Amino acid sequence: MKKVISIGVVAAAFTLLLGTPAMAQSVQGGIKGGVSFSTLSGLTEVISEVAEIDIDQRTNWLVGGFVKVNFGRFVAVQPEVLYVRKGAKAALTGLVTESVKFNLDYIDIPVLLRLQTGQDTGFYVLAGPSFGINVAAETESDSETEDISDEIENDTGLVVGAGFDLAHILIEGRYTQSLTNVSKDEIGPTVKHRAVSILFGIRF
Prior knowledge:
By secondary structure, the protein is mostly beta strands. Helix content is about 10%, strand content about 65%.
């Protein structure tokens, strides 16, 4: 059911994006993808019964599309639809040492304000909210893989970043921080995503 709802939300988002040309002076679109270095704050408290815990970043990936709606030369709004893998690694040391990966997959829909030195080329900065729909969640260890989708919430976050647009080629860095708890355990510790991402894209 969650996946059906997610597909419907993404379809509606694309319909909205495709309907924006009449509202703006100029509309451009493209695709982008890259790597992210993600972690989950609060995991130490969630698994605090383990004698020693080392939480580390995971190298993950993200891919998707965007539409850039220009309002003059220097200002644009940039909605995106991205498939993003988030998560972290935890090394658990107790009676047995074991490495556990947290794989949390989201469809993220950032809506970003973009300030740019030029409409078609140049440096830009961007910031805005991102609305994430969880579509899969699991823990992966040497011994087993466990589905934890029922324990994970959707995510609302904040994105800030900067990049350079050169002849339709984009190079961008961004930081994403959860603003809400992604754990459904309301009485437990707060768990939030954090990620630094490097993206490359093509603007049509």
